[in-house]
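Hi there,

I know you've been waiting on this one. I reran it after we fixed the sequence typo, so this is the corrected version. Both the input and the resulting structure follow.
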Amino acid sequence: MQDARERTISTISGWGVVFGLLALAGVVYSLYQYSLGTRGIESGWGLGIAITLTVVWSLIPIGFFTLQPNQAAVLLLFGDYRGTCRDCGLRWANPLFSVKKISLRARNLNGEKLKVNDKRGNPIEIAAVVVWHVKDTAQAVFDVDDYEDYVKIQSESAVRHLASRFAYDTNEEETLSLRANLDEVSHELQRELTERFEKAGVQVDEARLSHLAYAPEIAGAMLRRQQAEAIVAARQRVVDGAVGMVEMALSKLAEHKTVELDEERKASMVSNLLVVLCGEREASPVINTGTLYN
């Protein structure tokens, strides 16, 4: 199948043709008056010219068409593509042309909620909104059967494919997820839609996810898992910070020679500091009046 490509065709301003029709009407009327007169046909050739001009005058208005801003007309001559006119206003072209108007304005496609599986196999609900417009009128008309239906179906297919490439959520910082990396995911969606829509002469202006959630049957379980993962991640950060503070305290004591600690006292100090720093509740201090060796 050969891909069609848009080419521009020049048309005539309709207002000039209107004034020409008025002038031609005056000429035809004069010819009828001269040819017929008051005593019948006085000039056969004049009458023939008048009839011919009348037929021409009646055919010329068929070539009129109007275009609004951001609207184009695809012109066909007996099924052969002759070109596309993008000049707005009242235009005139060959009366034998068939005119198919196409809107070039930006359009919104608010996709329906789709139930798909993410990269981990979890069922999720996802939807996207796509802003698009026709860029190549010839491709939109001749390369696909219905470009609006094509955009809708390909958008749904792209969203399903996108959901299968990413997990809904992840704790790995270097891994993209649908929930945490919305901008990157939207960019990937726009890139894939651009590739799919190119065949139909459609350009994607913007594409973003408009809805993202776990499927209702697993939403409760996944919420509990997210809470557990969040608690584990928070505990890990607290422990890392506590170990760093203990190491810093021991290092400072050794550096300034504030007190000499043997291995047993260091172990006791580390244990006490970790309990204080990692505990969920405030620690209650206990004063030791003896020694570790009593």
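Quick highlight: Residues 24 and 183 are 63 Å apart (CA to CA).

Best,
R. S.
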